[in-house]
Design brief:
The protein has helices at residues 2-10, 13-23, 27-31, 38-48, 77-134, 143-181, 194-210, 218-242, 252-257, 260-316, and strands at residues 49-56, 64-72. By secondary structure, the chain is mostly helical. Helix 1 crosses helix 5 (77-134).
Length: 317
Amino acid sequence: EQLQIIEQRILTRDGLIEMANRLGVYAADLAEGRAPQADDIVADMRARTEIETTGGAPPRGVAQATIVRVSFEAPTAAMSAAVTNEIVTRILAENVSIRTGVANDTLQFFEDEVARLDQELATRGATILAFQEANLNALPDSLEFRRSQQAAAQERLAQVERDAALLRDRRTQIVTLFETTGVVPEAPAADTTAADRQLAAARAELAAALSVLSPQNPRVRVLQARADALAAQVAAEAAVATTPGEGTEVAPETTAAMTAYDLQLADIDGQLAFLTDQKTQIEATMEALRLSIEATPGNAIALDTMQRDYENIRVQY
């Protein structure tokens, strides 16, 4: 196909006239006063020129090398050789021109594709980053950590509910005993409050976890944070219990009116209020964890799709 295109380009009207004048194909005619017309020159040059192609890929059988046979009929061997060599030179030049054009087009295509894919990679990377930031608490790589948080929160909630049930039973017993006998039972020691018991349980659980896990383990970190928070709560309660409020004055008659019975009930009610707040916070945390865990599978599928598309584009790039 390329040789057919080259032949058509070489045998154009302007090309044949230019070659005939430059090589002096009709110099003898001009010397004798016979100036051939342009149309006659073109027709005569085409008649004398023969470009024959053999070989190539036949419809059936083994492909062979493509051979081009070029000849030009002239009155002298020198003239025939000169024109034939000129035609061969033009064939080779046209072949180089075609190959160069195809190579340049291919190179330009690759350069355009590289630029396009580079921009596409940047866009896809920004999309993945934005998705990860928008779903920071519901990504698959932190699923196990959030499940451990959920389990720890469930344990804390169960402990809070047990402590609250014990306090309600104790309050009922105190009220029943006082109303029946008028006797007020002895108040428990200060270190047996609900916060103290929770702190002791948290520290025991942390010690058990550290015996089999490293300090950097996510579950150990959760237990450590829980123990630290409970320790701070116990310290705060102790400070409130031992330090009177700034600017608060308590009348002697009011203190005297606060019997041991009232003090015990007030202490139990305060502990129940604290446990109620704790329960509300734990339930809110568990709800947030539940929602994030439920959203994780969908986020994982979406993230895998975006990362797979990114990887495909990177391979193309």
